[in-house]
Amino acid sequence: MRVIGLMSGTSADGIDVALAEISGAPPHLKSRLENFTAIPYPRKVREAVLRVAEGTRVNTAEISQLNFLLGELFADAVREACRRFRVPLAKVKLIGSHGQTVYHQGKPSLAFGVRRVASTLQIAEPAVIAARTEVTTVGDFRGADMAVGGQGAPLVPFVDYLLFRHARLGRVALNIGGIANLTVIPAGAKPSDVFAFDTGPGNMLIDALVSRATRGKQTFDRDAAIALRGNFRPRLCEMLLRDAYYRQAPPKSAGREQYGAKAVDRILMWGRKHAAPTEDLIRTATIFTPLTIIDAWHRFVMPRAKISQLIVAGGGSHNPLIMAQLTASLPDVKVMTSADLGVPEDGKEAFAFAILAYETFHRRPANLPSATGASRPPILGKICYPPHRAGSRA
């Protein structure tokens, strides 16, 4: 089956589109990433997504409009990707869309004085995607996991296990997107042996600081060019590391709620108080990301598994400062990228949602309770079928 996976992460840069060929079933599922592309959001759309995700100056009408607008843009992205790949859309049998997360609270809290609930919201209406592309679409993957006590994240570990399990080597799959998350896959692991969690910020703080410093002219620090001009500020890093999240045992998940505008304001306030130039703040935020990953490694990974390889994907894999810090901190571990194993660094998560959709289509569960904390493995997602044409058989 040819399946397209769609993904837009917490950085809200745009829509990642992966075209995959998938067959079989776990543990013998076969998958191949056939092609990958990324299509940026229009500037005003990205600004709206970030504003809604931060919960600033927003109303329900805007959220509703944005949900349907993103559905249209995700459908456009599918058509444009097929044009680029030179693959007729009619050859695509299924779409898996993660959508765009605008709120995620993995741990329950008291809601309106009535009951403790966790909640999440991914927008980009899958019914619109199905209608515009005329391809069955699976969306809204997190809810089913949360309904059985999971945190709804991370979901990619199921795919990490299928892609990277090794009979003799312990591996960690690390994705550094807006948030950084890792999947621990011991040598010869069974699904129940795998565990995963969000370590903290990936590129989110770095990107926000760059965007503010350049007034939106740059949205990320290409090749760590700005960070490399700055100096590391240990006291700022120590302040950031005091967050109790880093000591919290897995399963756990993080998002813009912890590392959004308020966290950036706090860093900028510290910078003004200590007369620290922007370059210093960006360098410190850049080094902070691998430090939180290494801290999680020592706290939660090393005591439970012997690891030989760290497989890095996501935008952070292109940041030389982050990669150098990881390599220097793990001298006995081979640090590599997912591309070394045939999966492009920027395409892995979109590829993962193609595989998750394939499992949902075949009515099979595709989460790992050991990663999300769910009480059992549910079938993920909601299926939207394309509308029948006039004269077609129901």
The average pLDDT value, as a whole number, equals: 94
| Class based on secondary structure composition and strand pairing | alpha/beta
The helicity comes to 25-40%
Total strand segments:
12
End-to-end CA span: 22 Å
SS summary, helix count: 13
Shape: globular
Largest sheet: 7 strands, mixed
Radius of gyration in whole Å, from Cα? 20 Å
In what range is the share of β-strand residues? 15-25%
Low-confidence stretches: none
Elements, N to C (H/E):
EEEHHEEHEHHEEEHHHHHEHEHHE
How would you characterize this protein structure?
- Strands 1, 2, 3, 4, 5, 6 and 12 form a 7-stranded mixed β-sheet that branches.
- The protein has 13 helices and 12 strands.
- Helix 2 runs parallel beside helix 3, helix 6 (204-213) runs antiparallel to helix 10 and helix 10 packs parallel to helix 11 (320-329).
- It has 394 residues and is an alpha/beta fold.
- Strand 1 (2-8) and strand 2 form a beta hairpin.
- The longest helix is centred in the N-terminal third of the chain and has 26 residues, at 60-85.
- It is globular, with a radius of gyration of 20 Å.
- It has helices at residues 43-54, 60-85, 126-133, 142-147, 157-164, 204-213, 234-241, 256-259, 261-273, 278-301, 320-329, 348-361, 369-372; strands at 2-8, 14-23, 30-40, 94-111, 115-123, 137-139, 171-176, 179-185, 195-201, 309-313, 334-337, 382-384.
